[in-house]
Amino acid sequence: MTPATGPASRDREGAASPPPVLRTQLVVHDGRRLAVAARWRRLLPILAVTGVIALFTVRLGHRELYSSHEARAAQNAQRMLDTGEWGLPVLFDGRADLQKPPAYYWLVAAAGWVTGGAVDELAARLPSALAGLLTVALVYWFLKREGRPVAAAVAALTLATAGHFTAISRTARIDVPLTCTVAAALPGSGVTRYLWFLLSAAAAATGVMLKGPVALALVGPAAVAWLAVKPRGDRWALPPLAALLGVTVVSGLAAPWFAWANHATGGEFGRVFFWHHNVERFAGTSPTLASHPVWYYLPRFAADFLPWTPALALLAWWAGRAGAWRADPLVRFGAVWFATMFAVLSAAQFKRADYLLPLYPGAAIVLGCAGERWLATRTDPRTVRRAGFAFALTLAGVAVGWGVMTAVVEPAEQAREGRRAFAEFIRTHAPAPEPILVFRAESHLLSFHLGMPQENRVEWHDLAAWLDEPGPRFVVMPPEYVYPAGEIVKRRRLVEVGRLEQFTGAKPPKPLVFLRTAD
Fold this sequence. Notes:
This protein is mainly alpha-helical. The chain has 3 domains: about 1-60, no CATH class; about 65-375, no CATH class; about 420-515. About 65% of the residues lie in helices and about 5% in strands. The chain has helices at about 20-55, 70-85, 105-115, 120-145, 150-160, 165-170, 175-190, 195-210, 215-230, 240-265, 270-285, 295-305, 310-320, 325, 330-345, 360-375, 380-415, 420-430, 445-450, 460-470, 480-490; strands spanning about 435-440, 455, 475, 495-500, 515.
């Protein structure tokens, strides 16, 4: 029987070929499958970008301000808008806030101005959220520019969904904007083109205006360490003239405000900001600041970089075994970024988890580049598919987790920590412009919701002088000072009007009492 007339023809290798009808069906099926795959390839980037934007912005302003940092940022920015004085940050009680330079408060004030002149929860957090998104975009752009598209996508999504990075990006704190300036400064510090280096220097100067010299303490050692280990003859060389130009740009942009602030405060800014909040924090010589062991950041980072800590550890170990440190300059760059900043921050006595955020992009670069190299060495397509499925499943888990956080956990925390209802109760008895005295308590959350005017005092003679003023007087203080106040201040009697716990879903950690004069 010839092959043409047999029940089933055979190909040149002797295998049975499908009948013509079946072959047509297979071609159609393969065409549809390829078309579906092509549509998914076009759709996935859109879904990824949309998901990351939603992660950083959805329900950003739905909860009250809930920390001292957030309330201070909102107060400083609102006072700038109300008074037109944008030089020194000043709280609602009239005290100059000398803990940080003003760049973040300028950004919050700008957001409040755009939204109508009032700083609310959304305006206070928006600069941080946008800085988080920009940091993710910078990591993606940097690796994509270097011809590493897979590494770019993995690193960007890893950074965007690292637990602590996402959380602080949704908080009115300075650490993520500082991270953004570091991410903008470091990749540019190794480029020979002077325009990029000028932009890098401008980013470093912005970091200084956000948080002071710590920005240079992070960027400088990392840049120098990278130059020491960069590939010989690589284009990422730093000409001496460019380094001098960078120092000049940073000094020219940042130094004038610091000199002015120190002069305007009679040297107090130098004593409070530079000495206490920088030198004493690093050396651990202040009795008001806790000291932490040198290993503190190891478990802290491991917990805060979840869910990606195991993948980072495994891929870093594999990269070391496979020689990626020598073969891949981008793995080396990310590792130097991470390790140098980790060492600098670990040397300080006072430590906070938020301080580690500027090294998160370095960790994401290591994970993305090592992950791309690992995928390229896999010979079994099923291994690649499993890795992609695990990555997608983890991203989905993060999305669900943040949905639960914003819908369940944060409202419960707000019920316990909220101050708005208590402040509104106080203002029904003492409407503005009636001044409120906050005595021996520092509740920036309450102060923000009370608005101006208000004062803050800690000495008993200041309380007595306040109560000696004619007319009704209103005071907020911790409950343990109510009885001593009645014993010490005899000329006017204070009566209790309400307590903070009447307006919270649970007993607050720092209870407060609202009182007024009885006569």
